[in-house]
Design brief:
Number of strands of chain B: 0
CATH superfamily of chain A: MetI-like
CATH class of chain B: Mainly Alpha
Order of helices and strands of chain A: HHHHHHHHHH
CATH class of chain A: Mainly Alpha
Number of domains of chain B: 1
Number of helices of chain B: 9
Oligomer: heterodimer
CATH architecture of chain A: Orthogonal Bundle
Number of domains of chain A: 1
Main location (chain A): membrane
Helix content of chain A: over 70%
CATH superfamily of chain B: MetI-like
Subcellular location (chain A): Cell membrane
Number of helices of chain A: 10
Strand content of chain A: under 5%
Shape of chain A: flat
Radius of gyration of chain A: 21 Å
CATH topology of chain B: MetI-like fold
Distance between the termini of chain A: 37 Å
Largest interface: A-B, 46 and 52 residues
Membrane topology (chain A): Multi-pass membrane protein
Family (chain A): Belongs to the binding-protein-dependent transport system permease family.
Structural class of chain B: mainly alpha
Transmembrane segments (chain A): 20-39, 60-78, 84-104, 138-163, 183-207
């Protein structure tokens, strides 16, 4: 315990880096997921082909491989070295964005047909239909899976320690190497990761509540309900 | 520097060796995850022990696989090989996921099936073995398949604990020749070659087992 209290500033700065990469990666992944996911629902075959190509490629390759490729292979092709942190954010964002795009596409397709037909009957423009009718409903549907993806992204950030970014994992490994206290050093990092995950879960649940409330659906209230696991579905969490 | 085909040809055998280790680790780890996950899903139904097991699994699911690998690797005795440790940690980590999948499958079995078992006073092992599990597992084949692909893509992490899989071979080659381009690109292509066809396969499975 004392070991960890002494090193709290170090672990906190590591956790800060982990959170920063998670946030940047999540922003990139979200933007990609939204654009590519909507493209996947269009009738235009070119847009659909681009969407499929992107999701299949970046879902198929592990973020670690992608990150190494960017950090070590690209400098060999072009005379430019990508910063380690940037390579990590790019790799994680592209990878998770591909999963997210599938979620967005599925959620948009799951919006009842009658809703879309109603907007056509009201002669709404495509843009207005998406913004006012389809996306708010799809949003509530995609949020729970986005929650899982954010946790996966946060856990995947540990790979940046392998290319020298001082995140939580790196801090734990350095502390272990310099003190030999394996159990304390790693337990500290594991607990920090767990706490960050719980923080993200609560944040995502709050977003889910807001989305459902705006649609006029009943929502659970109280803080405890935020921590409870969501009801199971037979198709699993949709992680991959 | 540009792409060197001659060099590419020379490194392919090493990379294929790595791919073989990757596949072995995936198959063994996945088998462990399937068995352990089912055991966890069943144990979770016992009142107090189940809650404790759930808490442990939740912790495993909320922390990075890489940290778990390095942690166990540095604690484990020298007699265990890195490969064994890697497979064990992979298996346990993914068991935390497959357990939830099994659970959802078990809960999706209609209550009438349980009632019928009770009405026929089937013994417990027959209830589970002949009625509940066959229906539950059939339902969860597609999500379980997704985790197989997911695990395959997580095996590069094993290179952090010096298991000689694909990624390890590639970074060794990169380190020796100071050429990462060919090896890393090939690693990416190998992964695509395996995961894209398997994703298509899973989609077909989903269609076949959908709406049971």
């Amino acid at each position: 315990m004392e070991f960890l209290i002494d090193r709290l500033p170090l672990y906190l700065s590591g956790a800060g880096t982990t959170l920063l990469i998670t946030l940047l990666g999540a922003v990139l992944a979200f933007a990609l997921a939204m654009v590519v996911g909507v493209m996947g629902t269009l009738r235009n075959p070119v847009a659909r082909a681009i969407a499929t190509g992107y999701t299949e490629t970046f879902r198929g390759v592990a973020a670690l491989v992608l990150m190494y490729w960017m950090a070590f292979a690209i400098p060999q092709l072009v005379p430019y070295k990508i910063d380690a942190l940037f390579a990590a954010v790019l790799a994680l964002g592209l990878n998770v964005g591909a999963y997210g795009a599938e979620v967005v596409r599925a959620a948009i397709n799951a919006v009842p047909k009658a809703q879309v037909e109603a907007t056509i009957a009201l002669s709404m423009s495509w843009w207005r239909r998406m913004r006012a009718v389809v996306l708010p409903q799809a949003w509530a549907q995609m949020l729970p899976t986005f929650g899982n993806l954010v946790i996966e992204l946060m856990k995947a950030t540990a790979i940046v320690s392998l290319i020298g970014v001082s995140d939580l994992t790196r801090v734990a490994q350095e502390q272990r190497a310099s003190t030999g206290e394996t159990v304390a050093a790693f337990t500290g990092a594991l607990i920090a990761y767990f706490l960050i995950a719980q923080l993200l879960i609560v944040g995502m649940r709050l977003l889910e509540r807001r989305a459902n409330r705006r649609l006029g659906r009943p929502v659970a209230t109280g803080f405890l309900a935020l921590l409870r696991p969501p009801p199971a579905t037979a198709t699993g969490g949709g992680r991959r | 520097m540009t792409w060197d085909w001659e060099f590419t040809g020379r490194i392919i055998p090493d990379l294929l060796n790595g791919l073989a280790v990757t596949v072995q680790a995936t198959v063994l780890g996945y088998t462990l995850a399937l068995v352990l996950g089912l055991a966890v899903a069943l144990v979770r139904r016992i009142p107090v022990i189940g809650t404790a097991v759930f808490a442990v699994m939740e912790f495993i699911r909320c922390t990075p696989l890489l940290v778990q690998l390095v942690f166990v690797f540095s604690l484990a005795p020298n007699t265990l090989s890195a490969f064994t440790i890697g497979v064990a940690v992979l298996g346990v980590h993914y068991a935390a996921y497959t357990a939830e999948v099994y659970r959802s499958g078990i809960e999706a079995v209609p209550a009438g099936q349980w009632e019928a078992c009770r009405a026929l006073s089937l013994p417990l092992h027959r209830t589970w073995g002949a009625v509940i599990l066959p229906q539950a597992i059939r339902r969860v084949i597609p999500p379980l398949g997704n985790y197989l692909i997911a695990m395959f893509k997580d095996t590069p992490l094993l290179f952090a604990i010096t298991v000689g899989e694909l990624m390890y071979q590639a970074s060794q080659i990169g380190g020796v020749y100071f050429r990462y381009l060919e090896a890393m690109t090939l690693v990416g292509l190998f992964f695509l070659l395996v995961s894209v066809p398997s994703a298509i396969l899973i989609r077909q499975l989903e269609r076949r087992y959908a709406a049971v």
